[in-house]
Every structure is written in C-alpha cells, then in structure tokens.
Amino acid sequence: MPNRRFADGEVVMGRWPGSVLYYEVQVTSYDDVSHLYTVKYKDGTELALKESDIKSQSSFKHRKSQSSSSSPSRRSTSRSRSRSPGRPAKGRRRSSSQSREHKDDKKKIIQETNLALLVLICLFKPSENNTRRYNGEPESTEKNDTACMILEQKLKPDLDMERVLEQYSLHPRKEEKKKEEIYSEKKILEAIKTIEKASSKPKELEFGGRIGTFMLIFFLPATVFYLLLMCKQDDPSLLNFPPPLPVLESLWEARVFGVFLLWFFLQALFYLLPIGKVVEGLPLSNGRKLQYRINGFYAFILTAAAVGTLLYFQFELHYLYDHFMQFAVSAAVFSMGLSIYLYIRSLKAPEEELAPGGNSGYFIYDFFTGHELNPRIGSFDLKYFCELRPGLMGWVVINLAMLLAEMKIHNQSMPSLSMILVNSFQLLYVVDALWNEEAILTTMDITHDGFGFMLAFGDLVWVPFVYSLQAFYLVGHPTAISWPVAAAITILNCIGYYIFRSANSQKNNFRRNPADPKLAYLKFIPTATGKGLLVTGWWGFVRHPNYLGDIIMALAWSLPCGFNHILPYFYVIYFICLLVHREARDEHHCKQKYGLAWERYCQRVPYRIFPYIY
C-alpha cells in the first residue's frame, strides 16, 4: 500500500479538473482503497483528486522565486550590451518574434479557457456519471451528456478556426482579434444560457412517466370512491369485490357542491385576514424570496367557532355523513377544474417560475406534477393555501361529523372509545401542523413540486376523504376496546408523535441557526452548499426519523378499528408506500445537491427509516 504524501488538514495546491490551473485547497480525507484525496476549495467545493493532481505550496513558491530572480539578470545583460548601427534591425526582428509569441500565448489561453469551460460544465453537471468519476469508478457510456454536446457544437467553429490560424500562421490584426474575442465570449454566454435552459428539464420522469401519470389521473379518484363504497358495506371484506355501484345521478347534487364551494372560499377569506406574522420562504432560482402570512392556527380557531355556532343553532353536522360520497365527487370535480386552470395559466409563466420537476415538455406529465412552482393571484398563494387550509381542516370537521353520526345511528349518549381515540389522535396531528405552519415552507411540496393535479387532488380530496377513513369505518362497524388497550394505543401514538415533532424541530432549528448554543451538542458534516448534514440526534439515528414517527402514528390511528377487516389499515399501507417513495425522492435530490458529503452521511447513518431494517 503506498504511503500518503499529504496529511488531513494540510493546505496544498490542487489542480482544477479539466484545466492546468492550480488553486489553494485543504485536504479533508484520504481513501485507502481508491487512493483519492478529498479536498475542499475556498468556495466550499469538495472534490476527489489523485495524488498527481496535488502539489505542495512550497514547490509553487520556489518556481516563482526562480523566475523573479532570473528576470533582473537578463534585463541587466541586455542593458550592458552596446548598441551598434546594425543592431536595430535585429532588435526589430526580436520584438516582432516576441509579439508573435505574445499573441500565440494569448491564443493558447483562449483555447484553454474554452476547453476548460467545456470540461467544467461536463464535470459539474449533476449526474450519476459525475459521482462515479469523482469516486474513481468507471463511467457509464450509455447516457449522452446533452449539456456537453450543446456546448461542444457551440464552440466547435471557433476552435476549428483557431486551429487553421495556428497551422498557417495567419494572425489577424489587433482590432479584428479583439472583435473575435468579444464574439467568442458572446457565443460562450449564449451556450451557457442554452445549457441552463436544457438542464432545467427533468431527465428522469417520476410516477411511471407520461403513461404512469395518465393512469394515476383516473386511478386516484377510483381508489377514493372504492374505499368509501367498501366502508358502506356490511361486510367490507376484500372478497366482496367489486362493491355495488350507486346510480350515477345519486353521485351529484348541486346543493352539496355549493356547500363545498362555501367551505373553500370561507377558508380563503380566513387566509386573507391581516392577522399573524409574515415570513419569507426559501430563495427561488432567481434569488427572490416570496412572503407568506402565517395565520393557519388563527384560521383553525375561527373555523372551530363557526362550526360551534352551527351546532349551537342545531345544524345537523351528520349531513356530511349522509352525503359523504357526493362531497367526495364535488371535491374531485373542483380539483380537476382547478388543475386545468393552473396548467393554462402556467403556459404564460416565465421560465424561472416553473417547477423543476414539472417542466418536462410533456403535457400529461406537467399537468399531473404541476408546471408552475408558486402560482399566485396577487399575494394569494394557491399552493400554500391548499396545502394546509381547506383539506386539513376539512379532515377534522369530517371526523367530528362521523362522531355525531355514530351517536345518532346507534342511539348513544356518548361516542365510543374507539371513535374518541381516532378523533383525538388526528386532531393533535392537525393542530400540530397548523401551529408549526412555518416549517412547511422548507418541504419539497413548497420548494420543489409544482402545483398541478397531484397536489390539488391530494390536498382537496385525498387528505380529507381518505385520512378520515378510520372514523368513517367506525360509524358502520363499531368496535369496542378496553381501557388498557386504549391506554397502550395512546402510548404508541405519543411515542410516534414525540419522534415526529422532536425530529422536525431539531432539523428546523438547525436550519435557522446552526450556531445556536443550544444545538452545540449536535455534530454535522459540512457540505459545498454551506449547509450541514446532522449525524447526531434523531438524524444520526435514521436518515428520516420524521417518517418513522409518521408511520407509528398511522398505526395508532388504525388500531382502534380492530382486526376484523384490513380496510382501516389501508392508510398505514398507503403511508408506508408514500413515505418510501418520498424517501427515494429525497435520496436522489440530496445526492445531487450535496455530492460526496451525502455519501459520507449515508456511511455514517446507514438506515433510512426503520432502524436495523431499512
């Protein structure tokens, strides 16, 4: 095994990949297997370099001193020589040759600049091949580097012209040379803009691409209606498939749609109230930060007061239970109309306002994932509003309606213990989300995903009508549980909530102020972006501890329904699949964003969600 030449922490000169230029770097680690040094540049960039690409600072200083010491002697020698009448011609020949050498050097610098720019863009384009190159692994030749091909085509005419001039010693005049340099710089800038525009297109389509998203547009509503129809059956067993379908005319009622619209615009009115603080979101691609009013918890209090007023005047809230399927259809129709509006308005949105994952150029895919990142009507942010307001608060109101319907149908003076547990657990989850509303501004839904059918249907239909599945199930299939069992389920939910909330709080506090003395006990891996990856606390236990807490809570919500049927546990199965999918998206996103630092983090924290399992 060869000995290391440079130690960790040593400041050396590292060659920039694809060029002959050396910059001051600091050695951070050394891999004994690949024999590569991980170095950190002054701008925070971390790269893996071979030993041959690293030189000590003393060698550079020695060369510089030699050149500076030899120059005066040559100048003094030239001054000591006497000038004879025959020497001026020779002097002119020397000056012309020096001028040619100067131009040749200048030409070589321009060529090296163009080639270095080509190599740098190819090297640092976020792709799987780059990660393999930095780790000393063989590259895959199956994927074409679109950005490199574009730049090579842009620069090839200029490079070919320079080769011809070099071959035939054709040197343009100084003015023409200057024009060519300006023209070349313009072409390079134009090529970079073309590459940036091309790189903004997502290369890997999620959800099965165009075919998968087209099927999901029909599959998701069908799944919601299937679950609701099964809960209505006396025996909601999977063997009783398919459930009897209702008459199409019974699925739509104008009055129900009007009630849904009233609910939606009431929440919009609460959102516009000038109460609560105004905060800034994360920087967008153009550096701009959007402002958001944090008043979700106040809106929840106003909503509770409005519902309490209706109950005081003896409004029968179980009307929701009697027309539950019609409300689901109304919400689905409204979400489809909203999605169409969002896509049409996104066609006029500037390029920098489009979502990174919803700018594929394929209609169906962009319609599903969302073409525009933050669609707004004035200061009214449509995506941010739908994320927490109408669907999440509607979930609580639906649960309350199911509780009242259970009491009326079964002639009970008090709701069942199972129904109380389900309502209490899910109410805690919603109140927690609204109390910590500001934390949602750092999630992928806000920072990365566009607002299209996926989020519109998920926020307005899936959340209120699928997340309330346990309460809807208990109305038609009451389940009695003992107090000790209820206590055990409550403890399980508290454990899941504690993991979920403490992990999210730990992450959010660290993002806001990593230098907070209260967080001094946390250790992290620095990254080239300036952010740190926590390797202690909850985030040193598993990579996504908040997802672990979510799954534990989802299990606690389903256990009060008993074990007679698997239908109430659909939410647990769905939640696990959803979080595993999100975890895969997070892994891919973080690998592109943090590079080598993320690989080091994965080595320190090998388990993703479930410790010692996954």
From TrEMBL:
Entries under InterPro entries matching the protein: ERG24_DHCR-like (IPR001171), Lamin-B_rcpt_of_tudor (IPR019023), Sterol_reductase_CS (IPR018083), Tudor (IPR002999)
Name the top EC class: oxidoreductase
Q: In which pathway does it act?
A: Steroid biosynthesis; cholesterol biosynthesis
Note the PROSITE patterns from the entry.
STEROL_REDUCT_1, STEROL_REDUCT_2
EC number(s): the record gives 1.3.1.70
Q: Where is the Tudor domain?
A: 4-62
Query: What is the protein name stated in its UniProt record?
Result: Delta(14)-sterol reductase LBR
Source species, please? Ciccaba nigrolineata
